[in-house]
Write a structure and sequence with these properties.
heterotrimer, A alpha/beta (432), B alpha/beta (133), C alpha/beta (643), A: 432 residues, alpha/beta, FAD/NAD(P)-binding domain, Alpha-Beta Plaits, five-stranded parallel sheet, globular, C: alpha/beta, Rossmann fold, 16 helices
């Protein structure tokens, strides 16, 4: 495929369009500087836009993300490349960065798509929906999710059979299979890395049975069950579609666990599990919810009060690490654990198990700098050489970092860290 | 009043943009239910309520009027509590002249996180108004 | 006059439509006079809907737009922006709250909630019939920032703002900068000590000509508003002339007969009434603690630079915005709380940290060597009975980190941790792991059955019902008991009160919204940073301080600000100057104008804040607040009351 060459100049490049990248881009743009925001996904908003409600205030994730996202989408100082990847960033002297950005074709003319979804209806291909964490299917011609930004269709070319059904039904004729990859050479004065994190993949812990036991799901899947744009209109057991009534949370799945190479605490799992437990008590008033934990880390503003509230609502908290999960014939699950309060090995039966998966580094930004000058810390997050006084600085002058790219963080902390990165970037631009 | 209205008096609340209205919002957020015929008009400060607005509300059929005052949290001035109090006194005087029960006007400071206090106030006011009707 | 009004009713993905029948609401208002367009929408705030609204406004030639959805605190500005993009004035937009105050507040009564929502929307329509386009009031904003508090957050903010070319006034209540950070030695996640960090910040501050540091200074008066806050600052003198002879000063300190507990060492040691606490404290100056000085004159005899004739100064500063970084107080345990102030070898974590700094080879407390140390966690936080329900966030890691350092610095140390569940979140877990590897003992109490510290003979004992060892009751004799104390809000909140900053349930200063606007307060132009907002460690304080700097900069970077045109307006035909409104106005925004034989009141629009306090006091009902006129309010009441 031919690669077209384009050039552009901005004051700042922000890599990653999650909540941290969005916040940083907005701060910079609101002070009068131009920003290119590059997001590899089809929508900006990151993981936050997919969340149900957020702790500890329980406002809905979408309600907080969407105003920011749409403010960015309309900002005259911000350009957004979705479905795009930063390939390389090189330094040509102080305040002079050259970035090479690959814009992947969407095969849809963004400006013309009205988001009518007729192409979705017409498309005959069905594949698992990554935005619903595989719980339902989607088409190869699809709008990523209801509140995506931009809310326009895309063609999943890997799975597309090129049958042409979508082209025939599109009322604005915006499907265009001739689109090609574009490579942009972008000149900027400063760079913010907001590349976010990966969730731990529980397939790496076979003893919990994820992937083979149908009623063992991840916390992100539960998040989708509870979200306003959820796939089903209630919380269901994936195994048989029954309403669950004995739900277990397994905290520290992939965190505080040297055996999977991640000794640190993920900082968010206790709280999001407590939040989900509270939402479940509302959605399924008859259900029992039990949280198996090592320590409850309710440390932030309003968090401990939120934890106490969950206890008050009747969520069970059991201090004990789950050793092994086995599946019964009816799809129920037996959890084996050492109950700290009795010191004895115990077993408990649940009909749905949620693995509270941890936060792992996204090492994508390592490849941006061909000279390998971007340093990592011991846990493979981006290193902060002066973490106390200049938490947004990286090992490269003029390159700043925001959000979970430096380590596990909750949403308020990510937003503050994005604020810090933008303050540094603004002064760096002013000094140029 | 018909049977279902007996339970719920019609109450007009004057709330304030920065202090008491956020508390009323939070009452909803925390699902602390309060009587369903409570209606809110938000204004910048509780010392801005005119007696004629309150009297107008009674004329048009409201059973009670509640001023969710800024109290000592007023972002404008500490004289707020006193000034809102004067408005209440003046209006209650007008009510007495018209043979109306002055207790149909209530005022209480509602801080920006006083959701529970607000809901308690609404419940007790509603009870009072439903009984006296 | 007839208008063309468009109304959107949001389902909010079920948050509204699960309880309010939005189609019924739509049906009920479609036929209202002036309403020419009515729609329901899944997420009114979604990008696609915003686009659709813009198109609708233009295609239908709408005069006014109403969205009935969540609280205006969340999305008023979002939708005002939509109407502006479509060519309308933002005051032709109204945001009706049918979520927080209807669907969520009444989800126990769906028909009732629907009825309520209908009236709320009808009232909105009644109000918008009178809406007029309004122009903002433009004011000059001074490119200067007052930063209150020169701890790590305030100092870092000052540097960030100076680097963005702002004039910065850094105002510190104490005579020295650095806050609590200056008191710490080793810091977690860092190779530097607290002193190093403060020294680095201080020397960087000095590089900026646009930063002025005021120490011993406190804001005592605040007037003005965003764009131009006028601050009166009282600066206490040091009673010592600039650049004194170092030998003479040394002597002056020696001869001073007054000794007071040294707060720098949390009262573990004494200092003189003329003092400089610490060799690395900045600015490097000596001061006289005038409150404790007896004026005996001994210092004057040995030092020419002592000058008791120095007077406190009141200076006036103008700043476009104010950044609060006023910090925290360490929690002081109550009398006999875990034996504090009753049992001699019970101290707080901050005291312990200073003790380590003061003890070189051996850890000595009150003349005795310390080997066995018991740490009691959550003192002043997560109180089952007390007021402080919050977790203080930094203390678990601070205690564990300190206990590791104690082991490294001294010999034969045994650490026993009486926790309530260890909260070393994130990468701080590494310290907990290290501590466990070193062989520290961790015990955990039940949340409602806290450990007890008591004396038996001359022994100090800690007793716990430990949930980690099959709920056995354990007792330990300790040489020293360290109470891991929390961060609490500053006891002296006078400056925050001066600015009328609101506080949260935990009594720390409150942000507008933890996620949407985490460093802004409801008072326009005032941001908050660091531990005045809640417990944080140093890195977290600095993140928040840089965040607040970016926000503060956005208020003043353009040199001009637009203020809301919601001001009072006086009908001069009805007014005959009685003074009542002038008396009621807290901002001196009302002036008397004489015109021939007639006198009347006028409003100064750039001072008026639109509070409306002048409205009800007017005996002639001559004053209206723009957008809250009698007609608007009364017609809203008509709609809310209608059966």
């Amino acid at each position: 495929m031919q690669e077209a060459k384009r050039e552009a100049t901005f004051d700042a490049l922000v890599v990653g369009g999650g909540i941290a990248g969005c916040e940083a881009a907005l701060n910079i743009a609101n002070n009068g500087y131009t920003v290119l925001l590059v997001e590899k996904d089809l929508s900006i908003g990151g993981k936050m836009i997919l969340l149900s409600k957020v702790f500890p205030t329980l406002d809905c994730g979408a309600c907080i993300t969407t105003p920011k996202v749409s403010e960015i989408a309309r900002h005259t100082n911000i350009n957004i490349f979705t479905g795009s990847e930063v390939k390389n960033i090189s330094l040509n002297g102080k305040h002079k960065f050259k970035a090479s950005v690959l814009k992947n074709p969407r095969y849809v003319i963004e400006e013309d798509c009205t988001g009518c979804q007729l192409c979705e209806e017409a498309c005959p291909v069905n594949v698992p929906d990554q935005y619903q964490y595989g719980m339902v299917g989607r088409k190869a011609a699809y709008i990523p999710f209801t509140i995506a930004s931009p809310r326009v269709a895309a063609i999943d070319i890997e799975n597309c059979t090129l049958c042409g059904a979508c082209e025939r039904v599109c009322p604005t004729k915006c499907i265009d299979f001739t689109q090609e990859k574009e490579v942009w050479a972008v000149s900027v004065k400063t760079v913010i890395l907001a590349t976010g994190f990966h969730l731990f993949d529980p397939l790496r812990m076979p003893r919990y049975g994820f992937g083979s036991y149908k009623n063992v799901i991840t916390s992100m899947q539960m998040e989708r069950h509870l979200a306003p744009t959820r796939p089903f209109h209630t919380v269901l057991r994936p195994g048989d579609g029954k309403l669950p009534d004995r739900i277990a949370y397994v905290l520290c799945t992939g965190s505080r666990d040297a055996s999977v190479g991640n000794p640190i605490c993920s900082q968010i799992c206790c709280m999001y599990s407590i939040k989900q437990a509270q939402l479940l008590m509302g959605a399924l008033p008859m259900a029992d919810v039990t949280i198996y934990y090592i320590d409850i880390r309710a440390f932030g503003k309003g968090f401990n009060e939120f934890y106490e509230q969950a206890i008050g609502m009747g969520v069970n908290f059991i201090k004990g690490k789950i050793g092994k999960i086995t599946e019964k014939e009816n799809g129920n699950l037996i959890l084996r654990y050492e109950d700290v309060s009795s010191g004895k090995l115990q077993e408990a039966e649940h009909d749905l198990v949620v693995l509270s998966v941890g936060v792992l580094p996204n090492q994508d930004s390592q490849i941006f700098f061909s000279d390998r000058s971007l340093q990592e810390d011991a846990h493979h997050f981006i290193r902060q050489p002066d973490s106390l006084l200049n938490p947004a600085k990286t090992s490269i002058e003029g390159v700043f970092v925001a959000g979970t790219a430096t380590g596990p963080m909750d949403i308020p902390d990510s937003i503050l860290s994005a604020g810090a990165a933008s303050a540094e970037a603004i002064s760096y631009i002013i000094q140029s | 009043m018909n049977a279902s209205d007996k339970k719920n008096a019609k109450i007009l609340v004057f709330s304030t943009d920065k202090i008491s209205d956020p508390a009323i919002d939070m009452a909803g957020l925390l699902k602390l239910y309060y009587p369903v015929k409570v209606y809110t008009i938000a204004i910048p400060c509780s010392s801005a309520v005119k007696s004629r607005w309150i009297m107008h509300a009674y004329e048009k059929g409201f059973d009670g009027v509640f001023i969710a005052a800024d109290g000592s949290d007023c972002p404008y001035d500490e004289s707020c509590t006193e000034k809102t109090g004067l408005i209440v006194a003046k209006t209650q005087e007008l009510m007495k002249q018209k043979d109306m029960d002055p207790a149909r006007l209530r005022m209480s400071a509602v801080c920006s996180v006083c959701s529970e206090a607000f809901v308690r106030q609404m419940k007790s006011f509603n009870e009072y108004l439903s009984k006296s009707a | 006059m007839s208008k063309r009004i468009g109304v959107y009713i949001c389902r909010c993905g079920g948050n509204i439509s699960d309880y309010v029948d939005v189609d019924k609401v739509k049906g009920a208002i479609e036929k209202e006079k002036d309403v020419v367009l009515t729609k329901t929408t899944m997420f009114a705030c979604a990008d696609a809907n915003q686009k659709e609204m813009e198109k609708d406004i233009q295609e239908n030639d709408l005069d006014d737009v109403i969205v009935a959805s969540c609280s205006p605190k969340l999305h008023l500005t979002t939708f005002r922006a939509v109407t502006v993009r479509a060519g309308l004035n933002k005051f032709n937009y109204y945001h009706a709250n049918i979520r927080e105050q209807v669907s969520w507040a009444h989800s126990d009564d769906k028909p009732g909630a629907t009825e309520n929502a209908i009236r709320v929307v009808k009232a909105a329509i009644a109000k918008m019939r009178h809406a007029k386009p309004l122009k903002p009031i433009k004011i000059h904003s001074k490119k200067a920032v007052a930063v209150l508090g020169a701890g790590v957050a305030g100092m870092r903010a000052a540097i960030a703002l100076a680097a963005m070319d702002c004039e910065v006034y850094l105002i510190e209540r104490n005579h020295f900068v650095g806050g609590h950070t200056a008191q710490w030695e080793e810091l977690f996640n860092s190779e530097e000590t607290g002193k190093n960090v403060i020294s680095r910040l201080f020397h960087e501050l000095l590089l900026y000509k646009n930063i002025t540091i005021y120490t011993g200074a406190q804001v005592i008066e605040n007037a003005g508003h965003i764009g131009d806050f006028m601050l009166k600052v009282r600066v206490e003198p040091a009673y010592i002339d600039e650049i004194p002879d170092p030998l003479e000063i040394k002597k002056a300190i020696e001869v001073c007969p007054v000794e007071v507990p040294d707060s720098f060492n949390f009262n573990l040691t004494q200092r003189k009434a003329i003092y400089r606490n610490n060799p690395e404290e900045f600015p490097e100056k000596t001061v006289i603690d005038i409150k404790n000085c007896t004026r005996c004159g001994e210092c004057e005899k040995v030092c020419k630079s002592i000058n008791f004739s120095q007077k406190e100064k009141i200076i006036t500063l103008h700043a476009g915005t104010v950044l609060f970084a006023t910090g925290f107080d360490p929690y002081t345990p109550r009398e006999n709380e875990f034996g504090y102030s009753r049992i001699s070898n019970v101290i707080t974590l901050p005291q312990f940290m200073r003790l380590i700094a003061l003890c070189d080879k051996k850890l000595i407390y009150k003349g005795k060597e310390v080997n066995k140390i018991a740490y009691v966690y959550c003192v002043g936080s997560r109180q089952p009975d007390g007021e402080n329900k919050y977790c203080s966030r930094y203390c678990c890691t601070a205690a564990i980190f300190t206990s590791i350092n104690v082991r490294k610095k001294y010999r034969n140390i045994a650490n026993y941790h009486f926790t309530r569940g260890v909260r070393t979140y994130g990468k701080q877990e590494v310290y907990y792991n290290e501590s466990l590897r070193m062989g520290d003992v961790y015990l955990q109490s039940f949340d409602h059955e806290l450990p007890v510290v008591y004396q038996k003979g001359n022994k100090t004992l800690v007793k716990i019902n430990d949930i980690l060892t099959e709920q056995r009751e354990l007792e330990l004799e300790a040489d020293l008991v360290v109470l891991v104390t929390s961060m609490v809000p500053r006891e002296d909140q006078s400056t925050a009160s001066l600015f009328k900053l609101p506080k949260g349930r935990d009594k720390f200063l409150k942000e507008i919204h933890m996620k949407l606007r985490p460093v802004e307060t409801v008072i326009d132009g005032i941001t908050i940073a660091g531990t005045c907002q809640g417990p944080m460690n140093i890195a977290e304080s600095v993140n928040s301080s840089l965040s607040a700097s970016a926000k503060a900069f956005s208020y003043i970077s353009k040199g001009e600000l637009e203020l809301e045109p919601i001001v009072a307006s006086i009908n001069k035909n009805l007014c005959s100057w009685c003074n009542a409104c002038y008396e009621a106005c807290p901002f001196d925004a009302i002036n008397k104008v004489d015109e021939g034989s007639k006198s009347y009141a006028v409003i100064n629009n750039s001072i008026c804040k639109g509070c409306g306090m002048c409205l009800p006091v007017c005996p002639y009902d001559a004053i209206e607040l723009i957008t809250y006129s009698n007609r608007e309010i009364e017609e809203m009441i008509d709609m809310l009351a209608k059966d």
